[in-house]
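#lab-general

N.A. 3:47 PM
ok so I finally got the sequence cleaned up, no stray characters, all 418 residues accounted for. can someone with queue access submit it? mine expired

B.Y. 3:52 PM
send it over

N.A. 3:53 PM
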Amino acid sequence: MPSYTAPTRDTRFIINEMLDLESYAELPGFEAASADVTDAVINEGGKFCAEVLAPINQSGDQEGCTRHEDGSVTAPKGFKEAFDQFREAGWGTLSQPEEFGGQGMPHVLGFAFEEFVSSANQAFGMYPGLTNGAVSALLAKGSQEQKEKYLPKMISNEWTGTMNLTEPHCGTDLGMIRTKAEPQADGSYAITGTKIFISAGEHDMADNIIHLVLAKTPGAPDSTKGISLFIVPKYHVKDDGTPGERNDLRCVSIEHKLGINASPTCVMSYGDNGECIGELVGAGGSVAWRAGPGGSGDRFDCEVHEGGTWCIDHVSRRLLPVVELIEGEDLSKSGGGGQCGVVDEVVSTGGRRRGLCSGDFIDPVVEDDQRVIGRILCGDGDQRAEIHQHAAVAVADDDLLVGLCQGHSQRQCWSLSH
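B.Y. 4:20 PM
back already:
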């Protein structure tokens, strides 16, 4: 079975020495990030990912998720237990605001842990990852009542979250979505429509799933300007904060994929019986949803993570075992003798083989990527702006930051694979 060892020493060096996290101590959210606290988080996080998440990575992908006739979905063996440990240890609260039960640690420290999680078990990481995205959206545009109602349970990972954007007919052109939101007398909205590619849209690992759904209200413009964002929980939330009656939504099917099978990619149907109820986030229209799924708040986290840290994750997870496999081999010989086998053909160029075997070829690329993303992701929102001013970095626009992180990471990984 493949193993995983988190690069805790390298990560500590990047955060404590290269980024010098303690130098930001006077900024909000960085007060508690002393070197000893940072080291403890990194070491324990790496241990959790290596000992709990990595052992169920391969088995989870082989078994996959199971959808039942009633639309419910069961995660692979060991995933629910691992998620319980994740929740009990408070890993999902690491960089979330203290006001809603988080630990209030710097965002960059949370990203370092997310890199460990995704490297050890990418499918598992998508459950809390999508939840973080939904939390970011509600923090940005949710009302105070909505924040108090949903965020504490989502941040604690008692409940998880999703993003519901595209539909079968429209791909990336979200202006074409047909999901409808009809206003009701009590101020809620009746949601009807179908969404596709919904990661973690249905599972058995949390007591409730809070779906953030893009839909159009009657008379809304027939473009992205007419899109609004709605909270559509799997179970309605009672006055005491506990899950109540089941909402009118279901998982119609789960996609058959080449990988990450332990994370269900769902087709979700809303309002089959005309009884799916949602809450409007913000004032409605494009201003609200752009801070939600696919918008600047959530999109920054998700696109940087998918386009940036996932590149690092795959380098660490896929190539470093090759280094271990061929270390000690006689590099003067070719043809597949010894342990190398097929790997010999992949790294047959002399210089590249020597670099791979010594680790000198991979390590600087991964470390450079971590440094760039870490420098940009020391915070979020206003916090990022303060840091950029503090560090004399002339970058303030999230769209530019997303491009920097994604482009740099993908270019680095391209250089490793060619």
